[in-house]
Amino acid sequence: MRYRAVRRDKPEHAMERLVTQVGGQFGGPRDLMHLHVAVINEATSHATGEIGRPMVFEGRLLTLEMMTLLVYSHRTVSRRA
């Protein structure tokens, strides 16, 4: 998937790394949302509405995907225990 706002591919490896780090610190969806809000606020602080709106939308989609990865990660760890 390519982003409309920045015209780049989805950072799948970075997403997986972030989810692993959050999950490794026993973080949950709320922690992921706090990170999402901070990053989106920083990224859109200098963007125009033309670029900012797609960045927010795409950021929301990424956050949902990362929450799914986080849930999957928690399930995998709990099944091993």
Tell me about this structure.
- The protein is 75% helix and 0% strand.
- The longest helix is centred in the C-terminal third of the chain and has 32 residues, at 49-80.
- The chain has helices spanning 12-24, 29-44, 49-80.
- The model has no long low-confidence stretch (mean pLDDT 81).
Average pLDDT, all residues: 81
Taking the sheet with the most strands, its summary is: none
- Which percent range fits the helix content? over 70%
Counting helices, strands and paired strands, the structural category is: mainly alpha
Order of helices and strands: HHH
Number of helices: 3
**Span of the ends, CA to CA:** 35 Å
Our Rg estimate from Cα atoms comes to 14 Å
Oligomer: single chain
Total E-strand runs: 0
What amount of the residues lies in strands?
under 5%
Low-confidence stretches: none
The best one-word shape is elongated
Which descriptors apply to this entry?
3 helices, 81 residues, mainly alpha
Brief rundown of the structure:
With 81 residues, the protein is mostly helical.
How are the SSEs ordered, and which strands pair?
Elements: H1 12-24, H2 29-44, H3 49-80
Helix pairs in contact: 1-3, 2-3
